[in-house]
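step: validate -> pass
step: tokenize input -> pass
step: predict -> running
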Amino acid sequence: MYVSVKGGEAAIENAGRLLGAARRGDAAHEEISLAQISQQLRLAVHRVMTEGSLYDPGLAALAVKQASGDLYEAVFLLRAYRSTLPRFGHALPLDTQAMAIRRRISAAFKDLPGGQVLGPTPDYTQRLLDFALASDGEPPAPLPAADPVAAQMPRVLTWLNQEGLIETEHPDPQAGEPSDLTREPLAFPAPRDARLQSLARADEGWLLALGYSTQRGYANNHPFAGEIRMGEVAVEIVPQELGFAIDIGDICVTECQMINQFSGSREAPPQFTQGYGLAFGECERKAMAMALVDRALRARELGEAPVAPAQDEEFVLAHGDSLESSGFVQHLKLPHYVDFQSELELVRRLRQARPGEETRP
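step: predict -> pass
step: emit ->
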């Protein structure tokens, strides 16, 4: 398919050196540090961790720096590194109800036990450029980071559950080990745990567009943000030699539970149903879009006719991975001389076969 070109190795090496120079930029300016990226570009770092399937802010910051801010390339770098790591165990399910909350809101209820916790968010700010950030002087001292709310807060959906107005989800005792898409390829039809894992790793922009489509009438959904919470949760494992759970550290996650009206079916009465999203760090938009698409993909199991793109499981899950989609598009930059020449000759022959078409050499 490809033809060899003399001197190509040197050209490729020089392209890599030029990339390093372009990444560094003007040497008259101080080089950005990983700590600056991790602390001041935290949302980019959190997105790369989520789509890269590896919770490590330091490595994600390194990937962002190496990729010159190209988050698709940063996700690629982080996943490539992740594939080299040994696996020594698995964690217990996260108890997000015991989250040390930094942000917790509900768009469905005004008064919540524990109150609405707005936390760090641009939701209530004017979208105007803050030129004070571009000044060379000392910026105003920021507020100190608020301590998380340590007390356990009940889930908002518990209120609906007490009246039997929302579907009750129970673990399937017959279910085996959870799916692991890093070891087994995705197969269709996919169980919900595999779908959620695929959505968590999927490109945020892809999920955002699909979630937006469900709100514009392409999945017959009318969602409400039942609860969105962000904060630190404990990660626990059960070492084989101990036989009991131990806490190995905390990670920051964002969780979203969407509620949707459901007119009922032969098996279920009219009630509310759920869509679920969870992502590393502060990835609220990703978690919300994930919850919208998760609910759309549950159409068949809820007895709804899948009529919209967001309800097509294979279409959604097979095209959401940023590595695959970016790779397929960018591979077009590679040499395709032989392929193009064969198609060029085919088009010429087809043109010559048309009545009245002039013959060209």
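step: describe -> The chain has twelve helices and four strands.
step: cleanup -> pass
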